[in-house]
């Protein structure tokens, strides 16, 4: 019984079935590109079964030489070899950065080849042009791996949740910053030490700006927001704040409020039809699942009018999780060679992104400079309803203000200052 079961499945039911062959090219043999080749070789038969065609990597584009690899003969240095080869039907772009990735993807599409990419920078900056070119040529441009690595998120939003009006998306979209914040929260490690550890473990780059200053998370929330809103949203139109200024005192106050500090990419449809989108550290109540997402894990909460909150959780980076999403796109390209998959958004619309001052939120504020009683008297005057906690340090308290537009919260902070009360730090909270 067992033997029959094993042997029956060893070939995934493909015995006697004559499958066609699809040839692909992989641009870039770095972490993700090499993972793509590895999965395609390791799971070759299962993938063929699911794609209903065998998938063969014909070329790998990289400027470096890899003479010791068993597939060393597949490497080329000149993109035009791939561009001009009519046998190559799908191009996988894993180079990163906008240039020359954009040029190569455009040329691939114009040469009649579908494209799958893991490149969030490219999709956030040039997604609309690439989607348009794919549509014009009846091809696919797919990028599941660009947000959340191995977490299925773009397909679920565009297909499984297609019946919904999606009102909000909030995500922990960057593993490096989540690792740093987790170390600060659970081990009382200062930001600089946690960053150094993240660098030593290979999570953070030597120049960690894209991660710690929020730009990586910004690209990802832009892709999600473009998908949900149907219009391209550019990173330059998004307010971004990173985690460099978070202190262990802030972490301790969050604990007192039964919350955790997380870097959140947020998209929300405002009542006036505009889109509120920003990236900022936020105090997240521990009653909300995003607060419990730790280490390098990512998670995304999507709010649909029919489904209500739906959560996606998993590894947002790394060789095999990211390559898994890229290969799934390749399989989809193979299965939709004749019928294009519907994934598209229109060009940006001027004025559709709201100013970040319009966001309605409550704020954590850490206050000192006067006695606790005096601070509380002023706070009660300025806010309709404040939540207080006593100080982590002497002669200090922290409050969570009532919800109000961010512009109002700024006025409250200025009034504290005018009354001789220092706002030592301030941070948005997250309410879905
Ligand atoms: N630097 C990114 C992160 C990698 O830390 O999440 C995945 O995009």
What's this, in brief?
By secondary structure, the chain is of the alpha/beta class. Helices cover 37% and strands 24% of the residues.
Tally of individual domains: 3
Work out the oligomeric state of the chains in this entry: single chain
* Unreliable residue runs: 1-12
CATH homology superfamily of the largest domain: Dihydrodipicolinate Reductase, domain 2
Residues in helix, %: 25-40%
What count of helical segments does DSSP give? Answer: 15
Radius of gyration: 24 Å
The top-level CATH class of the largest domain is Alpha Beta
**CATH topology of the largest domain, which one?**
Dihydrodipicolinate Reductase, domain 2
Kindly name the structural category: alpha/beta
What's the rounded overall pLDDT mean?
Answer: 94
Q: Bin the strand percentage.
A: 15-25%
Distance between the termini: 52 Å
């Amino acid at each position: 019984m067992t033997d029959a079961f094993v042997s029956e499945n060893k070939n995934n039911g493909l015995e006697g079935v004559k499958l066609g062959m699809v040839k692909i090219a992989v641009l870039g043999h770095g972490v993700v590109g090499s993972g793509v080749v590895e999965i395609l070789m390791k799971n070759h038969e299962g993938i063929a079964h699911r794609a209903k065609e065998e998938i063969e990597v014909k070329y790998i584009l990289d400027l470096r030489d890899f003479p010791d690899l068993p597939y060393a003969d597949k490497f080329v240095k000149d993109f035009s070899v791939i561009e001009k080869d009519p046998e190559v039907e799908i191009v996988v772009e894993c180079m990163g950065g906008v240039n020359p990735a954009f040029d190569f993807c455009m040329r691939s599409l114009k040469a009649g080849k579908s494209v799958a990419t893991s490149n969030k920078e490219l999709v956030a900056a040039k997604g609309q042009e690439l989607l348009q070119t794919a549509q014009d040529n009846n091809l696919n441009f797919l990028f599941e791996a660009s947000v959340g690595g191995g977490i299925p998120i773009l397909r679920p939003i565009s297909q499984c949740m297609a019946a919904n009006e999606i009102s909000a998306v909030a995500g922990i979209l960057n593993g490096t910053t989540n690792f740093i914040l987790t170390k600060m929260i659970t081990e009382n490690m200062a930001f600089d030490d946690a960053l150094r550890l993240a660098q030593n473990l290979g999570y953070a780059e030597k120049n960690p700006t894209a991660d710690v200053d929020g730009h990586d998370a910004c690209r990802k929330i832009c892709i999600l927001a473009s998908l949900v809103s149907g219009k391209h949203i550019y990173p330059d139109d998004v307010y971004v704040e990173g985690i460099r200024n978070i202190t262990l005192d802030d972490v301790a106050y969050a604990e007192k409020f039964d919350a955790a500090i997380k870097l959140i990419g947020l998209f929300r449809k405002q009542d006036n039809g505009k889109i509120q989108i920003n990236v900022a550290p936020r105090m997240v109540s521990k009653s909300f699942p995003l607060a419990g997402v730790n280490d390098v894990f990512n998670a995304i909460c999507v709010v649909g009018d029919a489904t209500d909150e739906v959560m996606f959780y998993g590894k947002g980076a790394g060789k095999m999780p990211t390559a898994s999403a890229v290969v799934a796109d390749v399989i989809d390209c193979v299965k939709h060679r004749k019928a294009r998959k519907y994934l598209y958004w229109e060009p940006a619309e001027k004025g559709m992104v709201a100013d970040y001052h319009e966001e309605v939120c409550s704020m954590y504020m850490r206050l000192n400079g006067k006695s606790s009683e005096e601070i509380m008297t002023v706070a009660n005057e300025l806010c309709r309803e404040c939540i207080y906690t006593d100080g982590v340090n002497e002669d200090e308290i922290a409050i969570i203000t009532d919800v109000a537009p961010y512009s109002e919260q700024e006025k409250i902070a200025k009034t504290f200052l005018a009354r001789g009360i220092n706002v030592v730090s301030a941070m948005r909270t997250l309410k879905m």
